[in-house]
Hints:
This protein is α+β, with helices and mostly antiparallel strands. Helix content is 33%, strand content 25%. The protein contains 3 helices and 10 strands; from the N terminus they run ααββββββββββα. β1 and β2 (105-110) form a beta hairpin. The mean pLDDT is 87. The chain crosses the membrane at residues 26-45, 65-87.
Amino acid sequence: MAEPIQLSLHDAASPMMEELLFFHDYSMLMMLLIGTTVIIALLIASTTKTYHTALTDANHLEFLWTLLPVMILLFLATPSMRTLFLLENQESPNTTIKAIGHQWYWSYEYSDYENISFDSYMIQDQDLEKGSPRLLETDNRMVFPMQTPIRLLISAEDVLHSWTLPALGVKIDAVPGRLNQLIISTMRPGIFYGQCSEICGANHSFMPISTESVPTKYFEKWLDKMA
């Protein structure tokens, strides 16, 4: 979960988020190198009173500063394509969970198990337990097993919503009359929070997402409890 005045991204809780963090850091490094080079060139140009004519009219320099941007784009495109491939090339899921957006709450259905479905509403401030995050905690969490591929089916009943979990690197639109699919998995147990990321009405800000990743044996106990 994000901390107050946090400037960095969430700690990765899934292989998907690890890939996104790597690409983010790689891109920022490239931008830093480019920015530093441009600033140094501007400082040299602005402080040097004399210049050589070969620097202002030279075919080899024209070729060089055309080639360099192409190489930079290739350096950015290669890890980007790799990340996109890994995001799409997911394992076969073991469990299917359907999340449906409403104004202004989420409902979850465990399609592989009978009679397991529930609504998830935000807990009001006066009902929060000590230590629970404000505007993020819900009365029912979406529970799923860790280190297991989960198929997530996303839809909406009324207007556009967006199911987002930053720690897992997940953001997928919930569209009325349409099913969007996503495969998620976590590397460790924990509670992960998110929020609807599509403006969906007056109470859009009060439509949190809370999930809990647990070991398989605890997930089986939770299923027995919910059945």
